[in-house]
Amino acid sequence: MTQNPTTLSFRILTVNTHKGFTIFNRRFILHELRDAVHAVSADIVFLQEVLGSHDLHAARIANWPANSHYEFLADTIWTSYAYGRNAVYPDGHHGNAVLSKFPIVRHENRDVSVHGHEERGMLHCVCRIPGHGLDVHAVCVHLGLQESHRQQQIDVLCEMVRDEIPTDAPLVIAGDFNDWRMKGHRQIERCLNVREVFVHANGRAARTFPAHLPLLQLDRIYVRNAHVHRPIVLPNKPWSHLSDHAPLAAEVLV
Questions:
Q1: Which residues contact 244 (CB under 8 A, 6 or more apart)?
Q2: CATH number of 8-253
Q3: What's the pLDDT at 105?
Q4: CA–CA dist 49, 19 (Å, integer)
Q5: Domain ranges within the chain, ordered by starting residue
Q6: Strand, helix or coil at 93?
Q7: What is the pLDDT of residues 6-34, one digit of tens each?
Q8: Alpha carbons within 13 A on the beta-carbon side of 217
Q9: Is pTM beyond 0.85 here?
């Protein structure tokens, strides 16, 4: 993070943690994932499919952390964090989380599940920049696998942003949109007047899935009220084996 009296530059990272396991759940790699997340030096981190707890794994896996996965990833670097529990099952629960070097002064997890189908949520955090008189709104998103569900969920996102976020406030919406046909992208652009960082810079969304050979454009970083925004290219290794999704990172100047 860099700042002067009139501008603030901060780094964003979004990653689907796949509950701390490699693709197909072959190996528990949360410790390696933490090292990789730390190396990016992001100011705000958006996490999807992050475990709050899992009693069965905790009993069976020797190096399972004593606290939640989002607290383990935050370590001593991101002193403020928020968690939105989405999926609950007998052994535990997982959801979205935001880790922030800025104080999170308010957060709300919005349930956008479609009845009878997969459990999904959107976590809205307000990050206050000390001594800067500025609130950055961060919305961590994990949308459904069915297109009709995503359309409904994006409608909720648009309504939430319109009703709850000032039109002149810096806004970052990031996460796993599962939007391989880009229909949701066009819907989001129309209703929210945002820019997707990779589309704006490169003319197309980044390919992020599967991580070892990315073909589908599932993950995004949208911004509004930013003077400058640019993608950060992350190395293929070690990220290609740390999740089923490749991460995305960006620099934002507001």
A1: 16, 18, 23, 209, 210, 211
A2: 3.60.10.10
A3: 97
A4: 6
A5: 8-253
A6: strand
A7: 678 999 999 999 999 988 778 999 999 99
A8: 15
A9: yes
